[in-house]
UniProtKB/TrEMBL annotation:
Classification lineage: Bacteria, Pseudomonadati, Thermodesulfobacteriota, Desulfovibrionia, Desulfovibrionales
Keywords: Cell membrane, Glycosyltransferase, Lipopolysaccharide biosynthesis, Membrane, Transferase, Transmembrane, Transmembrane helix
The organism of origin for this protein: Maridesulfovibrio ferrireducens
Tree of life domain: Bacteria
Record domain Glycosyltransferase 2-like: where: 12-146
Stretches that traverse the bilayer: 238-260, 280-300
Official protein name in the record: Glycosyltransferase involved in cell wall bisynthesis
Amino acid sequence: MQDNVKQEIEISIVTPMHNEEGCVREFHSRISAALKGMNTTYEILLINDGSTDCTEDIIRELSLNDPNLKGIMLARNRGQCTAIYAGIQESRGQYVVIMDGDLQHKPEEIPSLICEIRKGYDLVSGCRTNRGESMIKRKLPSKIANYLMRTTSGCQVQDMGGLSCLKGKLARSMTLREGQHRLIPALVYSMGGSVSEVPISAPPRFAGKSHYGIGRSIDVLFDIVMLWFQSSFKQRPIYLFGRISLLMFMVASLIMVWLLYGKVFFGEHMGTRPPFMGAILLYLSSLGFMSTGFILESLANTYEAVMGTKTYQIRETISQGIAEKPKN
């Protein structure tokens, strides 16, 4: 019977909340109205990511009168990606919609994503148009980051870090590490999934202050480098470091052959010439890169073995005002 109940939910809304007391009620009102208008079954998962304001109290209050609302209280602040991952793992819907709680993702545009993903796609991303944000602080960095992510991954989604909808089973099978919520379309594409886009609007934040700063742009750059690493070398470190090691070994060997030729035919000394020392350094560097590849390969295998370990802890979940402690 429990399995049948789980299968009845079509749409799961996963929304992280950190100090969003000014947005929670309005978000809940508008997302509830949008989903009720779709005449489908749904659940709303609000993940309180260690808020220090009244966000948690408001979620508890709203859950009293909404059986479709589930509050997930993390033990402490773990960041947006971890909060999203926790919500996905608690979801039960056939489709999982990931959206922000500041209403810069309009709840009224959820139907267009659901309509598109019902065509059989594994993921549908919302492409923001007519963004009214600062060109220097937000729009330009976003354009550059999206271009680099498309180039490195091959995924042609124009706007990867925004509103998205995934098939539920696929979403719950993914293991997201910190920062990878910005790469979800590229990750799905790299897994062989089909992706699509629909245009969405980009209204200003409803209330409160943005949590994004310059540090986020730096983090995105590192995420792109890691995405390139994974996409280009199939998540196998030995492929990358092995190629670098082989290249260094070949260059060093060519230098040695050239020096040996000079010694045999022209009587030139090998050990006193700078190229000889350069070749030795290249041989040592080649050995170092190969060793690094083996070490990272071993670490990757170890990670795969223990990847079931969660990076967050749920303090309690709230449904219809009733608190439930997680099972150990």
